[in-house]
UniProtKB/TrEMBL annotation:
Lineage start: Bacteria, Pseudomonadati, Bacteroidota, Flavobacteriia, Flavobacteriales
Protein name: Glycosyltransferase
This protein's record includes keyword Transferase: yes
Keyword Transferase: yes
InterPro entries according to UniProt: ATPgrasp_TupA (IPR029465)
Species this protein is from: Leptobacterium flavescens
Keywords of the record: Transferase
GO molecular function, one term: transferase activity
Length: 289
């Protein structure tokens, strides 16, 4: 067996020196030092949240447990139908699944498999993938320590596909609250698994420059059309996010219905670099300390 020394170092740091590791990786990513005492930028506040996390963040980052919260706050009609929740994938569970579905690990991000036609997969192939997910200590990748307290499991949901056979656009709504003043910024992601595109809008659906390095905007009518139910999207975002000073709430709009995706408290682990530090500071000021 080959040891992954970088992962081993992260595991040790997560126990004895998480603050030191977060500060070191922050300086490497952003080319300025993290100020733990007086954070000003969005990036700083995300980094500090990775260290000063809460139990509630752990519960609501669990893709299985968060559904109870969504059902209570906005209603079951916003949930993607669940086919199964599993500790591990078994032959019996696999056989009982429909011909199309999406299977995800509950304890991290980008741990998912889209199955458009189950006949194209064997049980052993899917089990090998999901077993690897379940062994993964996801929290170590970005030192997002609130993920450490999620018991790994699997959730299988209905696969939402548009007329082109693609996953519908993903609306990632950033919710900021400062002394009762609420602001929204929306990322729109399209064709995430093929020709990825991303645009950025303020709460009034005015197009603004994408603030992050490496995520360029696109002049595309399909991307820039305001969703018919955008006001409702903001309303349900507020109802889900209200207990927090900042959180990102993800949704899909499919067949004129809104479906909840996930709550994200530390997007990308705070590693995305801003094109302009002024935007990093502006978003940081929207988030009450």
């Amino acid at each position: 067996m080959v040891l992954d020394y970088s992962l081993l170092i992260k595991q040790i740091c997560s126990v004895i020196a998480p603050k030191w590791y977060i500060k070191k990786s922050f300086a490497s990513n952003h080319s300025y030092n993290l100020n733990f005492k007086r954070p000003r930028t969005f990036s700083e506040k995300i980094a500090i949240r990775k260290f000063r996390y809460t139990r509630e963040m752990s519960v609501l980052s669990d893709k299985i447990k968060v559904k109870d919260y969504v059902k209570e706050r906005i209603g079951e009609e916003y949930l993607v139908p669940t086919y199964a929740t599993l500790d591990r994938l078994t032959q019996k569970a696999f056989d009982e699944l429909p011909q199309s579905f999406v299977i995800k690990a509950n304890h991290g991000s980008r741990l998912n498999l889209i199955v458009k036609d189950k006949s194209q997969y064997t049980f052993k192939e899917v089990k090998k993938i999901t077993d690897k997910w379940l062994r993964k200590k996801y929290y170590l990748i970005g030192m997002e320590l609130h993920y450490r307290h999620i018991k790994p499991g699997l959730i299988v949901e209905e696969l939402l596909l548009n007329e082109q056979g693609e996953v519908p656009k993903d609306y990632k709504i950033h919710y900021f609250k400062n002394k009762g003043d609420v602001k929204y910024f929306t990322e729109v992601h399209a064709d995430r698994f093929s020709n990825f595109r991303c645009n950025f809008y303020d709460g009034g659906w005015n197009r603004i420059n994408n603030p992050w390095v490496g995520e360029e905007e696109f002049d595309d009518e399909n991307m820039s059309t305001r969703p018919d139910r955008y006001d409702e999207l903001l309303d349900v975002t507020k109802r889900l996010a209200e207990p927090f000073k900042y959180v990102r709430v993800d949704f899909y709009v499919f067949n004129n219905r809104i479906y909840f995706g996930e709550l994200t408290f530390t997007p990308t682990g705070g590693t995305l670099r801003f094109k302009k530090k002024t935007m990093d500071e502006y978003l940081g000021n929207l988030w009450e300390d």
